[in-house]
């Protein structure tokens, strides 16, 4: 027991910044702010969080509402896919030095006005999330069955493992922002921490290495863009 305590103390002293919520289990039922209005009363935009978005008038929008250091790697995927397909995008990003998990608002309760407006002007969306697991797995949820089919097929083709989401990560609620679209359906991807770490060289998602993407990252973007391009033909 003493050895365990010493090891934990050593980790906390020498790696304080990396022990943020990108490494923790975050579910749709986890505690946090109940609304954006509540969050902005405490947290300061530009200091604790930032919002990046662009409405490109596309049928598909790409969202990462737990981006930055909240669920590490989701912003990077959103940015990469939006750039590749020239899609509209929205990212709510934690930029605190630590404890970014406090910025987590569940997908059902996420009511930041820019995000909801962009969602409601898009035919459908893909919403990117992270959960904590050492398994290399991606849960594919949401209400858009055709888009989900194309994504599962493409991810499998490019060497990724997909599974049906566990109960708390299904993303099927109509109030979930992923389904607050013109079609009332979207795709919610829950990407394990093991997969997200592999998006960066040497499995290092620290601030100093976050710009160094791995070949796995680009393969993941290739898969999502292939699926999105095939799905767009049905819109």
From TrEMBL:
Pfam families: Gamma_PGA_hydro. This is Phage-related replication protein YjqB, UPF0714/DUF867 family. It comes from Priestia endophytica DSM 13796. The lineage of its organism: Bacteria, Bacillati, Bacillota, Bacilli, Bacillales.
